[in-house]
Design a protein that fits this description.
The structure is a single chain. The chain is globular, with a radius of gyration of 17 Å. Helix 3 runs antiparallel to helix 4 and helix 4 packs antiparallel against helix 5. The strands form two sheets. A six-stranded mixed beta sheet has the order 6-7-8-3-9-10, sandwiched between helices. The chain has a four-stranded antiparallel beta sheet with strand order 2-1-4-5, with helices on one face. The chain has 231 residues and is α/β, with parallel strands linked by helices. The chain has eight helices and ten strands. A hairpin with a 2-residue loop joins strand 4 and strand 5. It folds into two domains: 156 residues, 3-Layer(aba) Sandwich (Rossmann fold), CATH 3.40.50.300; 67 residues, no CATH class.
């Protein structure tokens, strides 16, 4: 679904990400791990078209989109959930979903129902302003809203940051359900290793803008990933 071939990008005269190769298979989950300042979010901005690629290539489903603007990548099925549990705080949970669903007609209504089935904790909160939800609830809402667009590639930036452990478990259970159907691919950026590596098909560790370690995911890989992060 997504291929990065020797991608470099950055800000101004500073190159932040250097020659990154990365792939997200159809229906798979690839996790990118690293400490603050490692270049993870900068890499995502290149994937989304928010930063120009200085060298290398970005391909979506085999198509070179390196020079395509963000809205064209969205049309090709990319959805992005940034850091910070973002929502429209003055709107209710229902309205946050509806503002997206209305653009998709019957398909939007069906996807809203599917998203609520995936995150049942949101159901009793539909009438509550999003600004009054907990951080974990807002994160579930942000992911649900992205799913209403019917993406082929879901890009998640630090989805568990500052969220209570029981909600982290619910979010990763939902991600596993989504990728298990084979129709959705996920690119996940995380600092927290355990859940990410356990659920990923593949993972990569970024340090100072470079991939310094990569491997197959799964429960047995967690210790190896932790060691790589500590180097």
């Amino acid at each position: 679904m997504l291929e990065l071939d020797a991608v470099s990008t950055g800000y101004g005269r500073t190159t932040v990400v250097h020659d990154v190769d990365l792939a997200v298979p159809d229906g798979g989950l690839t996790a990118v791990l690293g400490h603050n300042g490692a270049g993870k979010t900068t890499l995502l901005r290149a994937v989304l078209g928010l930063l120009p690629v200085r060298s290398g290539a970005v391909r979506l489903a085999g198509e070179d989109v390196t020079r395509r603007p963000p809205h064209q990548r969205v049309r090709r099925g990319v959805a992005y959930v940034p850091q910070g549990q973002q929502s429209f705080g003055q709107l209710t949970t229902r309205e946050n979903l509806q503002v997206v669903a209305d653009s998709f007609g019957a398909a939007g209504r069906r996807r809203t129902r599917e998203a609520l089935d995936l995150f049942p904790a949101l159901e009793p909160l539909l009438g509550r302003p999003a600004g009054l939800l907990s951080g974990g609830q807002r994160q579930q809402l942000a992911i649900a809203r992205a799913l209403v667009t019917g993406p082929r590639l879901l890009v998640l930036d630090e989805p568990t940051e500052g969220i209570q452990p029981n909600v982290v478990h619910e979010i990763y259970a939902a991600i596993t359900t989504l990728t298990g159907g084979g129709d959705l691919s996920v690119l996940l950026v995380e600092q927290h290793i355990g859940y990410a590596v356990e659920h990923a098909g593949e993972y990569a560790v970024m340090t100072s803008g470079r991939i310094t370690h990569r491997g197959a995911g799964g429960g047995r890989a967690v210790a190896e990933a932790r060691e790589a992060m500590a180097l």
